[in-house]
Amino acid sequence: MAVRHYTLDFNLSTAVDPASTVSGLLSIFHEQELTETIHDTDGHGYLATFVGKNGRFVVLRVHSQGLVTVDLQCYEDDDIAQLDNLLNALENKLKVLLNGNITRIKKLPALLRGAKVDRYWPTADGRLIEYDIDKVVYEEDSEYQNIKILHSQQYGNILVLDGDVNLAESDSAYTQAITGSGKENYAGKEVLILGGGDGGILAELVKQKPKMITMVEIDQKVIDGCKKYMRKTCGDILDNLKGDCYQILIQDCVPLLKKYVQEGRTFDYVINDLTAIPISTSPEEDSTWEFLRLILDLSIKVLHPSGKYFTQGNSANLTEALNLFEERLGRLSCPVDFRKEVVCVPSYLEQWVFYTAWKK
């Protein structure tokens, strides 16, 4: 079962008398066999709910600050034409009743709540996005996370981990940015990829004939899903865990990084595709910041003196979190310089920041 939620808002230049406004609307509600209940608002305008036999539920509120709002809820299989007629009748009547007092009218598409296929995801800075998702093509709960691959008509298949949009088949801009935006020469180089289970980075870099790429991904089920349902991103690179110039290790990267540090092993490029910078700006309350600091420190230690470290940041709107990350770059045990690049990643629907760092 799913519910459609429609909204209709009227912004007014001055407050209106609720009694005269509401009385002009009642005939429309009665025609739809909606039963009215008036609620006490303790002097904060007028509030009434209307309930229909078919499960329709309407909230009408005349706010004392110059705003009239209508919320309509109904079942997904309700008659959309009838609902449109009801909303249009309310809108047209309110235009007449509020003539000369309206500064803005806003009617949004219905929000579909409780649907089998979830189409709504928040951006990193808290805005709601509705995707054109029509089906779930893969879903598994691993030891580490919930993994979904959803199909979007516009973006292709989208990898979603624990409710966060990670990468869509349309997002080659992400892969380009986190590998240096086409400015690097990987031929004959040693490369370490942390994460990257969608296979996009690996598939791109193998084309450049590096000496060896070591990719460390903790979750086999991410690879299993992506090699079947994200092939526009990874091609056939995930079909085998080893190739002529790459190896995929299924393990936690932290112990491996510590081992590499002890052995003195270094890489020409380290690409951190594990996680975005945390939204929280309170490191003492969010353990992800400590994990990020550890990965940063270990990654720079295994970086060749002339090497480069690439990672994603987060939304360009999260300036506090980005500034905090940059402060942490300045406090690493190995001093580094860095630069950042802002890129539009199609399925993210927001500008995304990427970082390049190197040893001083």
From TrEMBL:
Family note: Belongs to the spermidine/spermine synthase family.
Key word Ribosomal protein present: no
Annotated keywords: Acetylation, Phosphoprotein, Polyamine biosynthesis, Transferase
GN (gene name): sms
EC numbers for this chain: 2.5.1.22
Protein name (record): Spermine synthase
Gene source species: Pundamilia nyererei
GO terms of biological process kind: spermine biosynthetic process
PABS domain mapped to chain residues: 119-359
Swiss-Prot/TrEMBL catalytic activity: S-adenosyl 3-(methylsulfanyl)propylamine + spermidine = spermine + S-methyl-5'-thioadenosine + H(+)
Functional pathway: Amine and polyamine biosynthesis; spermine biosynthesis; spermine from spermidine: step 1/1
PANTHER family: SPERMINE SYNTHASE (PTHR46315:SF1)
UniProt keyword Acetylation present: yes
One GO MF term: spermine synthase activity
Known partners and oligomeric status: Homodimer. Dimerization is mediated through the N-terminal domain and seems to be required for activity as deletion of the N-terminal domain causes complete loss of activity.
Active site, renumbered: D273
